[in-house]
Design brief:
Rossmann fold, 6-stranded mixed β-sheet
Length: about 525
């Protein structure tokens, strides 16, 4: 790990400007059937780090893409140094001085560090690229960040953290005035985050305006000067970081007042624990994904994973189902240490509904019947094909039971609404009579009626003994549905709430770190 000078202190530099260096006013962006941004204002000053916060779908990515020329706004004004601009492409935005570094580093791993920094703008002479000048320019860009890296190294041999630094150096090579960091720390460990923040402080001290997008609250309070919150495509407000408590930050992100929250239906009573637990996790974790996960889950219990987007909820669910392995801690399945894979999980009667039903759930070219029966057929083995009559009976019964519309089992699933697609995925797992069902955001993007039916189904199955691992960004769903809640923050499990402790304000306080 290369040393970063001044990683703990803000580098000296000019004070922040009173006026915004980059200013977006009244930005509106529409997509078919969706108002993604509704009259949004946002600005970043020279010499500041401005955190852009909001839950998934709040409009953060769309706003950044408007500012950097990926999208053309339907309304509003973009100004840089007080002059109106309208970048038509990311390349034009870079020429104007607005550069973006994304979570996934978009560089060429088989080229050297120097070649990546100067790629597409190499110094040339009569005989081609001036390699000594290229390496000198790249070295100066790296030195500006306070790093010591051999620019002749292959980028692919560098750590993800160093690749992020190279991406920043490339962005600065074109005299960037505004630097957008979009989830830059999601793949970094604590030491690498400290290294990155040392670079950010150095650039802030030089007068750059830095937009910082993240879901990690601790990092927001460590590095940012101001915070702007978006929700449902609208600006909620902007605050000096020091004046906004963590509790108020979370409350504004989710759109609920913590002082007025209550548990409307008293939650679910915890069932009597009969026999050995179905799943026990002891300090389970996976490097770069999640850590410190401990719980005990019995039949008839609903374990909720609560936290903001990026807190480690989905990563935990994937480990339990066996989609991802764990490299620390112990995971016991029915009293035995296990390293499950999806196939063995299905054989045990475990099901998993992904939050991304289109990419990881449905098979869009297949019909409803085939989508419902694929897990049951997989458990039987592909050489023991379900008879056609049995397929029709099982699929038709589940379609009727879940009120899937239209009730046509031969209809391609891609032509169903989102809510009915979600019901088909639930039917898929009901066909194997699950003992444990993992539901990751099962009600996201569906109408109120479908939500009610799905949540009623969860309760009826729980009463019959099915165990659930339940993830939802809707805290009211977590409170009403779960018998236990494991609260997660910044990729680690921080607290377990028993049935009589579950409330929306309690969960919010724990997420914000103000429950201690």
């Amino acid at each position: 790990m290369e040393r970063v000078p001044g990683a703990r202190h803000r580098a000296p530099g000019p004070p922040p400007m009173a006026d915004d260096l980059l200013k977006l006013s009244g930005i509106t962006k529409r997509f078919p059937g969706v108002l993604a941004l509704d009259n949004v204002d946002f600005g970043v000053r020279a010499g500041e780090v401005h955190a852009l916060m909001g839950e998934n779908g709040a409009g953060k990515s769309t706003l950044i893409k408007v500012a950097t020329g990926v999208y053309d706004a339907d309304g509003g004004l973009i100004e840089l140094y007080g002059s109106a601009i309208r970048p038509r492409s990311p390349a034009e935005a870079v020429r104007l001085g607005i550069s973006t570094v994304y979570q996934e580093v978009n560089l060429v791993p088989n080229l050297t560090v120097a070649e990546n920094i100067c790629l597409g703008r190499e110094p040339r002479g009569p005989l081609g690229i001036k390699w000594s000048a290229l390496r000198a320019r790249a070295g100066a860009a790296i030195e500006r960040l306070g790093l010591s890296i051999d620019v002749r190294r292959s980028l692919g041999g560098c750590s993800i953290a160093i690749q992020q630094m190279v991406a920043i150096a490339r962005a600065l090579d074109v005299s960037a005035k505004v630097l957008v960091l979009d989830e830059p720390t999601s793949s970094l460990d604590a030491a690498e985050v400290a290294q990155l923040f040392g670079v950010v402080r150095r650039l802030r001290g030089e007068g750059l305006g830095i937009v910082f997008v993240t879901h990690f609250l601790d990092q927001v309070y460590e590095i940012s000067d101001r915070i702007t919150i978006l929700r449902n495509g609208q600006k909620v407000g902007a605050w000096e970081t020091a004046s906004l408590s963590r509790l108020d930050l979370v409350t504004n992100m989710i759109g609920r007042d913590a002082t007025e929250l209550s548990r409307p239906f008293g939650g679910q009573a915890a069932p009597k624990e009969a026999g050995a637990p179905l799943v026990v996790a002891r300090d389970v974790g996976r490097r770069g994904a999640v850590s410190g996960v401990s719980f005990s889950l019995h039949s008839g219990e609903v374990l909720g994973l609560a936290g903001l987007l990026g807190s480690g909820r989905t990563e935990t669910a994937r480990i339990v189902f066996g989609l991802d392995g764990h490299d620390r801690g112990i995971l016991d399945i029915e009293g035995a240490h296990q390293r499950l894979g999806p196939r063995s999980s299905i054989r045990r009667g475990f099901g998993f509904c992904s939050e991304d039903r289109k990419a990881e759930g449905i098979f869009p070219e297949m019909n409803v019947r085939e989508n419902i029966l694929i897990a049951l057929q997989g458990r039987r083995g592909w050489f023991w094909k379900l008879p056609a009559a049995r397929q029709k009976t099982v699929a038709s019964d589940l379609v009727a039971r879940l009120r899937i519309q239209p009730p046509d089992i031969e209809r391609p699933i891609q032509f169903l609404s989102g809510g009915n697609q979600q019901k088909v995925l639930l039917a898929r797992w009901l066909a194997i009579e699950p003992r444990l069902l993992i539901l990751d955001e099962p009600t996201r993007g569906i109408d109120v009626g479908a939500k009610f039916e799905i949540m009623s189904l969860v309760e009826s199955l729980r009463a019959k003994g099915t165990a659930f691992l339940f993830i939802s960004s809707e805290l009211s769903e977590v409170v009403r549905t779960c018998t236990i809640v494991l609260v997660m923050r910044d990729r680690r499990a921080v607290k377990t709430l028993a049935s009589n402790e579950i409330s929306e304000d309690g969960i919010i306080a724990t997420i914000a770190g103000e429950d201690q």
